[in-house]
Design a protein that fits this description.
By secondary structure, the protein is α+β, with helices and mostly antiparallel strands. The chain has two domains: 27 residues; 121 residues, Mago nashi protein, CATH 3.30.1560. It has three helices and six strands. A six-stranded antiparallel sheet has the order 4-3-2-1-5-6, with helices on one face. Strand 5 and strand 6 form a beta hairpin.
């Protein structure tokens, strides 16, 4: 009888591993031996901000798209004409995205019942942030209620802190003064 129980336990354990692998619960191991997060379970981010409805020479617009693999597209525009858009690409380290993702979960961002302030203010600057993690998608309110504003601002700050600074543009070489 004990052998039968042992065999049943081993079979149950083996089936558990097979199910876990089939469901993608265990993280795959890369060639270097480091665990990585499957692409479908990584964080992607869309950020957009503008300084409101202003005459074209004063209008500023920023859009940032961070893909699940960390590739990032940053766009800055002046006015309302798309021809003024300046684009640059960057890369965010996967461990930084994973750290932000873990913090978002710990902070309860995905389960918080986000609410928009009522009545909404009209005009002025706006910041939009959409987060995706696996099947979860969250568009943060542009004007959250007062009790959620600090958390939303902290999330925005952490997202923007991920963006690598623009490399310094070198100016034309100056003539040697000697």
């Amino acid at each position: 009888m004990p052998i039968r129980r042992c065999a049943q336990s081993c079979l149950a354990l083996l089936l558990g591993y097979v199910c876990a692998i089939g469901l993608g619960i265990t993280s795959p191991i890369q060639a270097a031996g480091k665990p990585s997060m499957p692409a479908e379970h990584r964080l992607s981010i869309v950020y957009a901000s503008n300084n409101g409805s202003l005459p074209p020479p004063h209008r500023r617009d920023t859009r940032i798209r961070i893909a699940r693999d960390g590739s990032t597209l940053i766009e800055h525009s002046r006015g309302y004409d798309a021809s003024t858009t300046v684009r640059r690409e960057a890369r965010i380290a996967p461990e930084k995205l994973a750290a932000l993702s873990a913090w978002l979960s710990e902070a309860g961002v995905w389960t918080l019942p986000w609410r928009e302030q009522e009545p909404r203010a009209v005009g002025g600057a706006t910041q939009f942030l959409e987060l995706r993690f696996g099947e979860q998608q969250l568009a943060l309110p542009i004007q959250p209620v007062e009790s959620q504003r600090a958390l939303r601002d902290d999330i925005l700050r952490r997202v923007l802190d991920l963006i690598p600074p623009e490399p310094d543009r070198q100016t034309e070489p100056q003539a040697d003064p000697s």
